[in-house]
Amino acid sequence: MKGFASDNYAGIHPEVLAAVAEANDGTHARAYGADPWTARAEQLFRRHFGPQATSYVMFNGTGANVTAMRACCRPWEGVVCAETAHVNVDEGGAPERMGGLKLLTTPTTDGKLTPEHIARTAIRVGDEHAVQARVVTITQSTELGTLYTVPELRALAEAAHERGLVLHVDGARIANAAAALGLPFAAFTTEVGVDLVTFGATKNGALGAEAVVFLTPGLDEGFLYLRKQSMQLASKGRFLAAQLIALLDGDLWLRSAQTANAAAARLAAGVRGLPGVRVTQAVEANAVFAILPPGVAESVMEQYPFYVWDEHTGEVRWMCSWDTTPDEVDGFVAALTAAVTVAAGS
Ligand SMILES: Cc1ncc(COP(=O)(O)O)c(C=O)c1O
Fold this sequence. Notes:
By secondary structure, the chain is of the alpha/beta class. It has helices at 14-23, 36-49, 61-72, 86-89, 94-97, 115-121, 150-161, 174-181, 223-229, 237-248, 252-271, 296-301, 326-345, and strands at residues 54-58, 77-82, 102-106, 132-139, 166-171, 196-200, 210-214, 278-279, 287-291, 307-310, 315-319. A seven-stranded mixed β-sheet has the order 1-7-6-5-4-2-3, with helices on both faces. Strands 8-9-11-10 form a four-stranded antiparallel β-sheet. The longest helix has 20 residues, at 252-271. The radius of gyration is 20 Å and the shape is globular.
């Protein structure tokens, strides 16, 4: 089965798997991240994000996001985010339940926050009855497949900082963003004032590994303890670090992301002219959102699984991954074209 449901439906990139096998070299290594692989991964994060970057390897994205936001907030503080943010709609209430974090949500049209959203949401400063905003979290690339530009990011960091807030990036798809922007990671994080990043590797071809990368010195105080308390400290840490090294040492992260982004662009181009099909979001990374004629989604889904994103409008989401091939995209477009033709004739 090959489909467009999620970039997590894809397997592990063979180069990542080989790196894990190589780390399993028959010798013992210190546990809990005190191993040479973790040290190397930390070095690579400094190479990609700048010399002040401190990184902590984590198991998964939800845990990394929640622990990162928790690190920044005192008990009365909260997190500004888009209504569509993964932290709000797809983390099962973990920020609230596990992190004790109130999310201060705001509606957007494209999944992107602006300084105006911050101004409207980070309010009642000094009012003891209101949760005090402390973190602004954005997703790059967003849950809707859109992308923040460098000037937009800089404006957000300024708007956050002038209110004493920190800017967190949920980078579950940060490699897709870097590939789409054609920029190194630091150019759209460290250099524009982002304070901390959840670095996603799993969708980029890892088996399962993420990291929280602090870019503002001092913000990670106590994070070692918080990570353990949040159940995100891996005992056999070398096997998580080996995955990050495989992606970040050379250009595997970029190749994987470019493949996924190119597949989404090809898919969008293939369906744009089809009668009754409307692509609803700018296609800027590895996702395509669309509204289809009635019955089309159901008839194609069996062969190529994907999700209905919005039950009310019928909007669907198609995700491309590091292993999506042009032939698979063309096959999917052909199936959609056939279904649209049948729908038009009925
Ligand atoms: C925007 C975003 N953030 C974070 C995550 C990480 O989630 P998980 O806990 O499944 O690794 C995902 C995965 O779907 C995501 O799409």
